[in-house]
Structure formats: C-alpha cells, structure tokens
Design a protein that fits this description.
alpha+beta; Alpha-Beta Plaits; 2 domains; 36% helix
Length: 135
C-alpha cells in the first residue's frame, strides 16, 4: 500500500481577520477534496490572519499515481489564485502490505475452523432458519 502526504504552505493576502482567512482556506480545502478525492486538513497557522499550512494525503496501489494526484492537487491550489503558495512538499511512503501477506491473516479460509463463526455454527443463526421457508 502506498500512502502519499503533501504539505501546502499559504499566505492569504488582504486577510484582516481569522474569519476572512478561514473562508479562503475552507474554499481551497473543499475544492481539493471534491476535485482530487484527497484528504485535506489545516495543520498549521490556525491562529494567524494570513498564514496557513494544509496537509493533504492520498492512498493507492502505485507510487507514481499517488504522487501525480498530490502534485496535480498542489498545482490546482496554486492555479486558484486565492492565496500565495509559499512552500510545497510531497512525500511517498510504502507500507509493507502485499497480497501474499494476506494469506496469513486469521480470517482466511485455512484458519476458519478456529473462528467463532464457523459455517457449522452459522446454521444455528436465527436468520438462517427463515432462508428456506416461504413467507
């Protein structure tokens, strides 16, 4: 599993209050979430009038795709011209998850006899009784 994280540091020109800055930041966050299906949160600068840091994240199966989505999201944020982009960074993390490792998980069929919901016990469940009967 590939997880990508990006940082986006913003300077909101002309903002005279936290309310004005938050309006701009909320607009950017909403647009990034809707267009790129990434997770976005304000992670820094919450108490300043003109400075904000946004954190973005995306997950996928291939590193180039995750990186491209995050880079496109950062470029889109800059193209909005709602705030000046001061700094951006993208990091990709590969977590040790492989399909071959999934075979060793306890809920696989090879281990089913050890689980409390074995098929033999499933016949005793109340909703199983009515499956063969007509209503």
């Amino acid at each position: 599993m590939i997880v990508g994280a990006a940082a986006l540091e913003l300077h909101v020109h002309g903002s005279r209050s936290l309310k004005q800055k938050r309006g701009v930041v909320r607009s950017i966050v909403r647009r990034l979430r809707n267009r790129f299906n990434v997770s976005v949160a304000e992670v820094g600068g919450q108490d300043t009038w003109q400075h904000a840091v946004l954190g973005l994240s995306a997950a996928g199966a291939e590193a180039p795709i995750v990186r491209r989505v995050l880079e496109q999201a950062l470029a889109y944020a800059e193209d909005l011209h709602l705030a000046e982009i001061i700094f951006t960074d993208v990091e990709i993390l590969e977590l040790p998850w492989r399909e071959s490792e999934a075979e060793d998980l306890p809920w696989r069929e090879s281990e089913a006899e050890d689980l409390p919901w074995r098929e033999s016990e499933a016949e005793d469940l109340p909703w199983r009784e009515s499956e063969g009967e007509e209503r």
